[in-house]
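Got a spare moment? Tell me how you read both lines of this record:
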Amino acid sequence: MIRVEQPSSPSGKFSVMRSSVFLFLLLFSQVSRSAEQEGALDKFGKWLALERDQRLPLADQAFAGMSLSAEEAKQAEAMLVKDHAAMVRATRADEMQKKAITVGKETLRFNFITFGEKPKDGRSLYISMHGGGGAPARVNDQQWRNQLRLYQPAEGIYLAPRAPTNSWNLWHQGHIDPLFDRLITNMVVFEGVNPERVYLMGYSAGGDGVYQLAPRMSDRFAAAAMMAGHPNETSPVGLRNIPFALQVGGRDGAYKRNAVAANWQKKLAELRKGDPGGY
């Protein structure tokens, strides 16, 4: 593990491009480093230069236990991000061209439209989940096509995925999480998305998905907006540090969606009362 001598500034939300190397803060400010330790980054760079199938486990390398300054830790992180992005470009170009991502037995198709000028620090990404569910494929296909026409942000990439299945729980089965994780990573690498500005939205069955995925994957999203959905068994506790919008018609009594949304509003208010800085 690479350790840090000086604390770095607090980080923002977890980025999908962050390294898997853990950075531990030392309890003391000054550590004398040998000449061998001074070359930790060089040795790390040589390890990264190897083909992936020739790299021995990082944790087993002698340099992985050497101390790094806060600035060197930033350099190490940048090297890992660059290396991971290169792997993504080399192995996932075909799925981006086809706009279809497969993880395990499920495939997520998607389409997107780009709006506005690209900011210097990267584009925003809006993932918009369609409704439907529990219906024939042609019905859900129509819902998907309609979803792509719903919004036109001033800036960013508006992306509508097609749910892998046609079941009632389109967007909150277990296979959705790794598919979305891979989708977001791909959009960061191939389309210049800023991982700190990824937003989730959906209505009806897509709203069900927002209720479920926002707490489950809160470190992936800057904010989430739920429209006319139902949370089923999920809890809002996982929504710490993520703005969450509830939008349901006052007379939308199907599945008691209006009453459930009002109850969630109360739950979120209670959470905010107990943790004003988190909710």
Summary: The CA atoms of residues 113 and 275 lie 38 Å apart.
